[in-house]
Amino acid sequence: MRVDVRALGACNRLAERGAGQAAGALTDLTGTDLSVEVTGASVASGEDLAEAFAGRESIGVSVGLRGGLEGEAVLAFDADNVDALLSLLPGGSSMGRSAVTEVGNIALGGFLDGWANYLGKAIDMTPPRYFEADGAAVLPDGALAGDGVFLFESRLDATTTDLDFSIYMLPDSGQFRDLVVGKTAPAAAPGADGGAGNDGTDSTAVPYESLSTFASLAKRGSANAADNIAMMTGLDTNVDVSRLRFVPLADVPAEVGVEPHAGTVFELQGEPSGYLAILFEEESAAKIAASMLPSEPDEPLGGMAENALCELGNVMTSGFIDGWANVLGTSISHSPPEFVHDIGSATISPLVAKLSRRQDYGFVIDAAIQTEGVQSRCDVYALPDERELARALDRLSES
Amino acid sequence: MSHHRSSRGGELSRERDSGRIKVGVSDLSVATDGETLTTSGLGSCVAVALVDESTGVRGLLHAMLPNGTESETGIERPGKYVDTGIKRLIGELEAAGASPRRLEARVAGGAEMLDLTDAIGPRNVARAEQCLDAAGIPVVERAVGDDVGRTVRFRADGRLVVRAADGFERTL
Fold first, then answer.
1. Which of A41, A193, A228, A255 is least surrounded by Cβ atoms within 10 Å, i.e. has the fewest?
2. How far is B107 from chain A (nearest CA, A)?
3. Torsion of CA B77, B83, B85, B90, to 10 degrees
4. Closest CA to A186 of A394, A387, A5
5. A2-180 is classed CATH 3.40.1550.10
6. In chain A, which residues have pLDDT < 70?
7. Per residue in B66-76, pLDDT tens?
8. Whether complex ipTM tops 0.85
9. B85 in A contact zone (CB under 8 Å)
10. What is the C-alpha to C-alpha distance for residues A2 and A209, in angstroms, rounded to an integer?
11. Domain spanning A205-398: which superfamily?
């Protein structure tokens, strides 16, 4: 299938609105404020998903969809949080499973309202089915099949209690798939595009197989970056998570969070151009820098640490984008590192702003890399220009 | 519990809290019941806080880029841009009972965080000053520029608390 990036933006926007309505419905029901943390579509193979969900236990509710959309939507939350959830519900823990089912039903109904309006067709929900699931079994049917899928995921957070919900939807077939490939409403993708680029030269349709190839490339890049940390520090370093997601760019700073971070940012030049940020929480930054220095620095994040982090950033970035040029058949280089040390979201917001001049949504690669021994962890965010990436991926499918 | 409209996509505000409304990036919100409006992680982005003291109606914008009027997305997501965001915020404040003639502004953010991203911060601040001036709204306080990230809280009393990355706090 060819995925239309603008149509994908429109779908993401619907999912975002739907999640907002689900949060509103849950807020009214529980009296606890819930907010939509992030909505995105991830590109992942069944194998990757199984790995990402390994060890997680979820409880939740699934509904079958008929009419305007067909398939399955799932509302799930972490089984560890079950008591927190029940304490919020009318009737409390005595209600248990039926309360959870009711919550799921109401929230998913809210989520689907927006889609029904957009499609101009009613979406019928089958009665909610309560489930308790291990690992990736929580995901809608079909998620683990085939080479890869788009999984729409919205995360809802309670602001005052420790409670996360996820809503999953999968464009496995039929109408939802038509929406994503841009068949249903090719021109009606408000906000999915920067307004420029309708000159006919910019392709926004990307073969799904190319996206999947790029996701693997990004994963390999993350592993290279981790290997380079290991080489520089002599410490075992591994990739925890590596994801390729399609998200609203405005949500990226919030994902980085408000904790102080230190690290490096780079401009990527070539096709695709874009930005790359390597961010450590302060303590992690100081630990990893110290592991590279011959003696303990006077200041944990002073000039010596800054130099060390810049050098580390350089080799990580080279490793990360190594292979892109070969696979995509383009040439990609990166700028010298720029050191950042500030509120996490503030360090990444200028990069997001710069890209947002041309796009509201984008493919974001994020990876979490963990260094053993010193317990240091960093997050890598790669933000490629959407049109240039689409062009490169389109060419990839032809070669 | 009251519902607050958010202009980002027109849905309900993305976060509500008893007494706290969180404004995201490219977002704007209005408070009429004494809630604290907050926005975090202002780097090159700019926050514009408007208050009509006589009614207590306040609004906060977290804009990312200076100019949106020429762009389609300026209309779709007015809060993304300083100019369209200010215009929409004034409109929403008026709808909530504020008088545009009594509004006063406090501006924060617009830092020059990176050499890589040519002066987006200062241009955001300049655009904000220009748009507010054109609307006849005086800027009574500002904490802008430099290379420091900021987080702000817009209190019920109309004062804007600006906290820098190093924890230093100023009340404007």
1. A255
2. 16
3. -140
4. A5
5. yes
6. 89-96, 141-150, 159-162, 170-177, 180-203, 399
7. 988 656 555 67
8. no
9. no
10. 8
11. CheC-like (3.40.1550.10)
